[in-house]
């Protein structure tokens, strides 16, 4: 049987988009063929999928990195690069995927949410065949593929159950589950027997059945990390009703009323919302009370907790006495609550939070080539969809230089008029002429804004 693991930390990465290709058509008797560089392939996606056969995160116990395949570079003769293969990560139902650093929920793999694309692969870059114009018939530039997206994740398994059993160790929770369902948990007369949450299905005649989870025994201090309780409190969060099992006979010398208070204190410290769930008290082990003391012991519990809204049932998990009444009451309570599943809402969207393209732009001087060099993925992206040979496209390009502070950075490097500025496959002579920069006065601003309203980024069409 695989080790029960309900938490894990892993890295995931989508595939990088393949770069566009730079090549030119070559054919006998054709001296100067046009550009025929193909597009890069899209990078693979990171996909999470529920596997109903899994009930643990043991496969991720040692962490690791899960990476989709990169897209292939475009080829000659307008051949597109091959798409990178997706990576499919299988997890048990009930797995909550969180961004590791913030702890915010990305996705809850439960209640029909069986498959999600967590990270999309980078888009492939355009080959140089896209950049030929009437004035630039041999473009030596191709668009790079979008970079991969990478994320550290925290996986947390929260079992899917309608009802959670809580209580101190050795009060009879495992015996209760065995008696009322098809579950076969290990049962022994010592503390901390249950090392994993055990699930059982309760079938009732003429009433709705439900799934019960036996949560490992809680002790005082569990919410602060004492004992095993802290490790499994998360599994109570999805349940809609709690059955609080208590030793009404005090077979170990414990006070059942104080035990109930102590457990509820731990639940509230861990998550106050848990204590708002309907709670049924199972006053167990009444068969071990001396004759005549049964009613008196259970009545003390009723007097204390029924005024607080907790229904108390006198039960013997050994003989089965009282179990039927308790189970039908729980079934009716679930009916009243309705069918709304407990699903953890998304708090972190990788598509919004992760910056696909690095915004950094560097401006430097190449003393060997005697050129000023402007670089950065943002520059590459802009050049990929801007036709610099058109008046409007060049105006857009100039405004881009202004808006991103590139002209200011060039001035800081003491650039002079007539000096060469290189941006990947393009070179320009620098001139300090305000009239050539759109937006140099109010009237130009209005004209430029009107032009830009009509300007469409070809990549937006996707």
Please sum up the structure shown.
Helix content is 22%, strand content 20%. The strands form 4 sheets. Strands 10-11-9-12-13-14 form a 6-stranded mixed beta sheet, sandwiched between helices.
Q: What are the defining features of this structure?
A:
single chain; 462 residues; alpha/beta; elongated; disordered C terminus
Rg estimate, integer Å:
33 Å
Distance N terminus to C terminus? 48 Å
Shape label? elongated
Going by helix content, strand content and strand pairing, the class is alpha/beta
Show unreliable segments: 185-194, 434-462
Give the SSE string: EEEEEEEEEHEEHEHEHEHHEEHHHEEH
Measured as a percent range, the helix fraction is 10-25%
Mean pLDDT metric: 81
List the strand order in the largest sheet.
10-11-9-12-13-14
Biggest sheet record: 6 strands, mixed
The count of DSSP E runs of length 2 or more, i.e. the number of strands, is 18
Tell me the fraction of residues in β-strands, as a range.
Answer: 15-25%
Helix count, DSSP H or I runs of 4 or more residues: 10
């Amino acid at each position: 049987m695989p080790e029960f693991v309900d938490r894990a930390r892993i890295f995931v990465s989508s595939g990088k988009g393949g770069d566009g290709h730079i090549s030119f058509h070559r054919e006998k008797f054709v001296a100067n063929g046009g550009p025929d560089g193909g597009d890069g392939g899209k990078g693979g996606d990171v996909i999470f999928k529920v596997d109903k056969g899994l009930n643990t995160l043991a496969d991720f116990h040692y962490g690791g990195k899960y990476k989709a395949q990169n897209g292939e570079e475009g080829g000659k003769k307008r051949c597109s690069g091959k798409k990178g293969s997706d990576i499919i990560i299988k997890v048990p139902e009930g797995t909550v995927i969180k961004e590791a650093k913030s702890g915010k929920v990305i996705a809850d793999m439960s209640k029909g949410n069986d498959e999600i694309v967590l990270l999309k692969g980078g888009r492939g870059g355009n080959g140089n065949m896209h950049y030929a114009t009437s004035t630039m018939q041999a473009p030596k530039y191709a668009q790079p593929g979008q970079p991969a997206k990478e994320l550290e994740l925290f996986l947390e398994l929260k079992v899917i159950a309608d009802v959670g059993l809580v209580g101190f160790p050795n009060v009879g929770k495992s015996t209760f589950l065995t008696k009322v369902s098809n579950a076969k948990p290990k049962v022994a007369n010592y503390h901390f027997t249950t090392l994993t949450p055990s699930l059982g299905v309760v079938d009732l005649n003429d009433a709705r059945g439900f799934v019960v989870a036996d949560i490992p025994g809680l002790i005082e201090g569990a919410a602060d990390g004492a004992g095993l309780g802290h490790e499994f409190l998360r599994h109570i969060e999805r349940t809609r009703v709690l059955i609080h099992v208590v030793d009404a006979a005090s077979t170990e010398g414990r006070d059942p009323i104080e035990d109930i208070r102590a457990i509820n204190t731990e639940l509230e410290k861990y998550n106050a919302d848990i204590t708002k769930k309907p709670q049924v008290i199972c006053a167990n082990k009444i068969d071990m009370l001396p004759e005549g003391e049964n009613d008196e012991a259970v009545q003390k519990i009723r007097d204390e907790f029924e005024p607080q809204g907790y229904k108390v049932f006198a039960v013997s998990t050994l003989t089965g006495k009282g179990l039927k009444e308790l189970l039908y009451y729980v079934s009716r309570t679930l009916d009243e609550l309705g069918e709304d599943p407990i699903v953890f809402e998304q708090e972190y969207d990788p598509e919004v939070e992760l910056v696909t393209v690095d915004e950094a732009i560097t401006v430097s001087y190449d003393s060997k080539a005697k050129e000023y060099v402007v670089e950065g993925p943002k520059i590459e992206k802009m050049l990929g969809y801007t036709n610099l040979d058109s008046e409007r496209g060049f105006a857009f390009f100039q405004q881009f230089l202004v808006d991103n502070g590139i002209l200011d950075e060039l001035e800081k490097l003491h650039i002079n008029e007539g000096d060469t500025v290189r941006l990947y496959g393009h070179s320009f002579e620098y001139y300090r002429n305000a009239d050539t920069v759109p937006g140099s006065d109010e009237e130009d601003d209005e004209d430029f804004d009107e032009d830009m309203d009509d300007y469409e980024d070809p990549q937006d069409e996707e």
